[in-house]
Amino acid sequence: MSRIALVTLVVDDYDDAIRFYTEALGFRLVEDTPRPDGSRWVVVAPGAAGTGTGLLLARAKDEAQRGRIGDQTGGRVGFFLHTDDFAADHARMRAAGVTFLEEPRHEPYGSVAVFQDLYGNRWDLLQPATD
């Protein structure tokens, strides 16, 4: 095995999720394919093709799944988005309406700020420190 290809993120609406991840976060839409059961196979990913893990945006099918939207990691930061230009991406994301839960911090491991996605899931925007 060479890498984790996809991580599922439960959402309430495909189109709203696609819009947020592509427009606010700058991800690319990798695939949006209708399925016979009325669902869709929707994949978004940051960066160039083949450079990282994608998100499978899966619409909740029942109340149990809807109850997990926005809290898939129990309130912890569950997703880590690396950047090569923290200041520029932070400014662009703020201008696009992304909610940051803290001011940027500069830690020994890099520059970081926690933000929420459209559903309330917590993410780190992180520019790792260079050696």
**Overall pLDDT score:** 94
Q: If helices are DSSP runs of H or I spanning 4 or more residues, what is the number of helices? A: 3
The tally of beta strands, per DSSP, is 9
List the helices and strands in order: EHEEEHEHEEEE
- Largest sheet, if any? 5 strands, mixed
Estimate what percentage of residues fall within beta strands: 35-45%
How many whole angstroms does the radius of gyration measure?
A: 15 Å
Structural class: alpha+beta
What is the straight-line distance between the termini? Answer: 28 Å
Helix content: 10-25%
Low-pLDDT windows of residues: none
State the shape.
globular
What does this structure look like?
The chain has 131 residues and is of the alpha+beta class. It has helices at residues 14-24, 63-66, 86-95, and strands spanning 6-11, 28-34, 40-45, 54-59, 77-82, 99-100, 105-107, 110-116, 122-128. It contains 3 helices and 9 strands; from the N terminus they run βαβββαβαββββ. The strands form 2 sheets. Strands 5, 6, 7, 8 and 9 form a 5-stranded mixed β-sheet that branches. A 4-stranded mixed β-sheet has the order 1-4-3-2, with helices on one face.
Summarize the structure.
With 131 residues, this protein is of the alpha+beta class. It is 19% helix and 38% strand.
Please write out the topology.
Blueprint: E1 6-11, H1 14-24, E2 28-34, E3 40-45, E4 54-59, H2 63-66, E5 77-82, H3 86-95, E6 99-100, E7 105-107, E8 110-116, E9 122-128
Parallel strand pairs: 1-4, 5-9
Antiparallel strand pairs: 2-3, 3-4, 6-8, 7-8, 8-9
